[in-house]
Structure prediction request, 247 residues.
Amino acid sequence: MMGFTIQRWAAWAPGLVEPAAWEAWLSKPHALPAEGTPALTEMPAMMRRRVDRLGRIALQASYQAHVDAPDAPVLFASRYGDLGRSVELLTQLARSEPLSPTSFSLSVHNAIGALYSIARGDPSSYGAIAAGEETVEAAFTEACGLLADGVPRVMVVIYDEPLPAPWQHFSESLEFPHAWACLLAASTGADAIRLGCHPGARGPASPQADGLPADLRALRFLVTGAAGASRWEHPVGARHWRWERHA
Prediction:
């Protein structure tokens, strides 16, 4: 698969904003607040008022990673999306109450990407990805495909939050809302990161004693650089994903 490097990255969670704070936290995770919403001052106020907490978190990471970089395709990836809105809409349906067209339009997976594109006036292609436990890998596979087709750079945005009732039992190790974004460029150098998939288990699974969800373990591998591990493996069912860095 196409190798890539990370030109810039950003992440946001309650109590964690700057990359240095994230790197320290990823090396020694501890409990974070479950509540908190970024200011998202980069987005016009009229549009910002339409965005729920999860969208604000995802867009805050997006703006911080994009900064002044040229326009690029953006892939927004979330395992669960904005289920809070879905619960609200389903409850209204069950009560035979009228639905809000605005709330419905913002409940779909591609709504956050659409708002980001409109706010930035960016005509680049946007995608929305949800692939269960393999959401991060699916997003980076798509990004590598775009890079292989000659796109100079691609931004990947990963975001999720704790699930609302009655779906909380589906959530795994997700105790606080968070988002992270990486601006990727193709690379054939020795420091390139590569992602591969193999059938069946090919070695021991990565330890999960720290309780981090898979997406944050992926982020830890991606941003630790030469000081971190050269490989991270993520077995999911009959597939075994392998992230490698050849330093």
Remarks:
- The CA atoms of residues 3 and 194 lie 5 Å apart.
- The mean pLDDT is 87.
- The radius of gyration is 18 Å.
